[in-house]
Amino acid sequence: MSHVTRREVLQSSALLAAGTFLLKPAFAHAAPFLDAVHKAETASVIDAVPEIDLGPRDHQLFDFDWRFIQGHGTDPAKDLNFGSDQGDFAKTGDFHFSQPKFDDAQWRSLSLPHDWAVELPFVNDPSLNSHGYKPLGRKYPETSVGWYRRTFSVPKEDEGRRIYVTFDGVFRSSLVFCNGVFVGRNDNGYAPFQFDLTDFLHYGETNAIVVRVDASFGDGWFYEGAGIYRHVWLTKVDPLHVGQWETVVRTDVQAGYATLNLSTIVENTATAKDRCSVKWQIFDAAGKVVATAESPAAEIAADSKQNFSATARIAHPAIWSLAHPVLYYAVATVEANGKVRDRDRVGFGVRTLTWDLEKGFLLNGEKTPIQGTCNHQDHAGVGAAVPDRLQAYRMEVLKGMGCNAIRTSHNLPTPELIDACDRLGVLVLCETRIMSSSDEGLAQLSAMIRRFRNHPSIFLWSMGNEEWVLQQNDMGPRVIRAMQERTHELDPTRLCTAAVNGSWDKPLAPCLDVMGFNYNLSQIDKYHKDHPKQLTIGTETASAVFTRGIYTNDRLRNWVSSYDVNYPETSVDFGQKWWNFYGARPWLSGGFAWTGFDYRGEPSPYGWPSVSSQFGIVDTCGFPKDAYFHYKAWWDNKPLLHLAPHWNWPGREGEEILVQAESNLDSVELFLNGKSLGAQKVVPQYHLEWKVNYTPGTLEARGTKDGKVVLTETRRTSGPAARIVMTADRSEISADGEDIAIIRVEAVDKDGLPVPTADTMIRFKITGEGALIGVGNGDPNCQESDKKPERSLFNGLAQIIVQASKKPGSLVIEATSRRAASATLTVVTKEARLRPAVPSASRA
Ligand code: GAL
Fold first, then answer.
1. What whole-number percentage of the chain has pLDDT above 70?
2. Residue 734 CA, ligand 1 centroid: distance in Å
């Protein structure tokens, strides 16, 4: 075993900060339909967060009651007259649209997160291919700019506090104004940013904040959405306060205890020097204080900062692992002369990350091959504006197939995605957007490291993806060295990689702490031989490329068969091969398939009218394709038997149909209407195949282990759709204005058999305490609206997402169709703790 010296630090590394508590076991009471795929979290995401008193600090969600209007990229008259003449930015305080009294009655009311791109029609223009044919860009000025406005009161007593607004992510180019004043800009669409509003507020009066968002330029080559698509926060603190993302917990695990190295940077924004100390309390998952620590007191000059540190010890710590992702919380309190001045909280986990040249990656000392998927951030119905609970749902779907890691390709993630990974036990390869050592590149990278460094789920940082220019020239090594140096400075506990797809013989790749291979299996052994002292991982490995429920390649319909036979040109290796390859090389640390979820944009392999990619192992709703069961068989290690295709082939009687079974048992015997079609032995990693003359009825597979039939799986020919069935992921959600229910909609025949080919249009009526926020069906070619209360089924399935209001009661969803009997589903919205939120100013 040859450890890499410079990486020894990692053997006892630190962890996480995020902010969530497991009040209830995470995997109990799954709704029935989820059993096959994954188990749902029972608590709402907000219920899962402990109420820890932050003392004098107010940290409020700034998401509710915004107003929105579409602007214009080139015509000031249609853009609130912004930019009508040269002088807009000439004087401070002059921007009329952000004055509290500005009349915004014509603006639409909405809550954040919000993605206006998903509301736009699809436009057949090849230049829109990456955005999934949504009209964004300089050619579409009328749909590329949006304005957000919010009025709010600031009480007189807040005078003297520092008041910050934080945006977790806005796509893209945002200009922020407050009470007529331009307070700052942020260009990229993924890094969080903060502005100090203190000097510009009217204390004891109404205030207004306005954000102009311009999505004319993109950051990527995939669907990126448009708007304030992540949370916004208002934070009010004492002038002497904990810096943003400046409480860090690093853990050193020893036999029987863990030492916590605690540090907090305190900022003194006052005009006089001050003197304080920092006290830390460590809470376990049950909310019990398990350790405390205190720093010596120190003086902080006016307008400067100071690092405070101490160590604490937890005896017999609960170790964060994939099976038991246990979190702790550190609360840092700033005290001056016995008075609490500020308090901040971070979550963390106790676990070790180790890298080994022969064994690859080890979590808590155990070899843990990365069974990963890359994922973009959008989901059916909501685009990039993904509610917190949906982040968890997406991870549950992936975890359900044994996926133990995600790569946040190709950008800084939404914090709640990382919270979900911490809570559910999913490792994260966290990726920054641009590979650059420019000020902007390092600023994005630094924001990512500082924001996420406490999170136990993050095991590796990625400096970027497929930068083919830097991969080849002499800038590349300089850029990578600067980025890695910055990363190690801010986080000495983790290593860096980058996703490299060529120029193996050029100097960038060997500079990486961990070499990241994108595809190109044929290059890997040679590269490893040439660089035996470099750690390796598969940053992007292979794609499945299937249309869910379709079993033929059809160029006219833009369908790709779900039989595992398709793969993109970039990937010489289809789904089944890569895991065999990686599994056979213990020095490779595993890898990430492209992708877990289908995503909008990159509508490969066909283009228009496809609007989504087909690379996913699950579709844009999270409905599994057959490939899901291939991965599940070999990644999840539980007995599995899966049969494809469905058995509804009217008109094809007597024709030969290819039947495939996925199984990790010893052998599988197939029966058609009770008659055996033969048994076959399972070859690990490969599916079994039979050619079957089609006769309607029951296709049954019996899976045998040690001579006993342990699993059976059937596909039955159904009649036409007779009824709609709806199933919610949770039957009770929180009435907090944020929680959602994710509802599976399907058609069954008169006997209750699912109709796998149903394409019925379903109309929805939502009454009661909540609203519909999105619909989808996973069809990459479907151009129906994501927002209208209707959706056709695609191969038997659709999904709708409903969100609770803040009033307890119930949400009633009625689904009707011309071809099947209607259905009604009630989701209870129960009284819930609301997160502290910025109250709205009353509109006179
Ligand atoms: C990769 C790239 C991904 C995606 C994929 C499609 O090379 O990193 O972002 O574009 O190709 O096959």
1. 92
2. 38
